[in-house]
Write a structure and sequence with these properties.
This protein is mainly beta. The chain has two domains: about 170 residues, Chitinase A, domain 3 (Roll); about 200 residues, Chitinase A, domain 3, CATH 3.10.50. Helix content is about 10%, strand content about 25%. Strands 11, 14, 15, 16, 17, 18, 19 and 20 form an eight-stranded antiparallel β-sheet that branches. Strands 4, 5, 6, 7, 8 and 10 form a six-stranded antiparallel β-sheet that branches. Strands 1-9 form a two-stranded antiparallel sheet. Strand 12 and strand 13 form a beta hairpin.
Amino acid sequence: MRRTIVLALILTTGVLAACGSDQPVSDPDSTSTVADPSAGGVTDSKLDDVTVTGDPGEKPVLEFDQPFGVAETGSRVLIEGAGDPVVAGTTVSIDYVIVNATNGAELDTSYGAQPASLPIDGAPAFLVTGLTDQKVGARVLIAIAAKDGFGANEQRGVAASDTLLMVADVLGVATPLSRAEGVAVPPVIGLPEVKLDGDGAPTITVPAGDPPTDLVAQPLIQGTGAVVESGQSITVHYTGVLWNDGTVFDSSWTRGSPATFSIGTGNVIVGWDEGLVGRTVGSQILLVVPPAKGYPEGKPDGSIKATDTLVFEVFPCEDPNVMLPVHMLHLRDMGLVQGQNWALDALAADCAVDGQYDFLLDATPLPMTRSVGGAVAPTAVK
């Protein structure tokens, strides 16, 4: 599910750079170039001249003289929040709308769809400046100078000199765990060995011999946090290696920030949908994913073959419920909201544009991994 491509393009300088590629993420269906600050256009507009109407939780309406443009990115607080603050190390959930300030055309919005959830650390400067120290409940207007946007995009009608205007409602703030914590589970003979360094980052050692033919979802540390449910967005740290030679093909620890995506909805490989639903936040989970539940056709670049078994260490590090707005938590608790994903899929889905994170995609939802009598034991899913 790919929806917020415009926001993802803007975030290539920060959040989506965490996808492990040294190339910016781009939309393959469009042409994008880096904005040239000398390209001209209006640069002396004032944020105070922008009128924003609409109640919190509703999609805001922006009114301003066009064209509107600024030379430097800036922000203005429209509504003060009263909840937890956005600070370094936290993940923030926002609803937002982005418009082209030259002509007022809407480029992207999460209202009526899914809010965006992203770590503030490493985010692009305009979000760091606009959202840091803001509290849950705040509404912020941000003017994004052309040099800080995503450049010219003919298909979307954006010129290299265009300023963008963004209104963001801060819905939630959470602090992910820094490492797995809970009750250690004795390792199972014959499965890969996982050792954690002082920061909690894993090293995976694959044993000699043939891999299991069924999916294995083995907890190594049993966390005590919230249970991961199908349809939620979860934030995890993970490392993935190939069974045949132990090559690391992806790791959020290397990038320095966890990944957020929906689970149990077909947005990830089958092995993840089956192996992570029903687990608890704080756990450390070893997944051994056979080819049929990973890449049954391999990856086009050849880095993962159709015959490769994948090994993951996965650590759900954040309560998936914290990103729900308060009123949605109430509805969920009454059973009126089920299977909703209230955080940004694009972090995973749009990273796949340049071949990163695509192990999380192209799957169909299947039943969750089973446990035996509630005991912590290796679980094979067929």
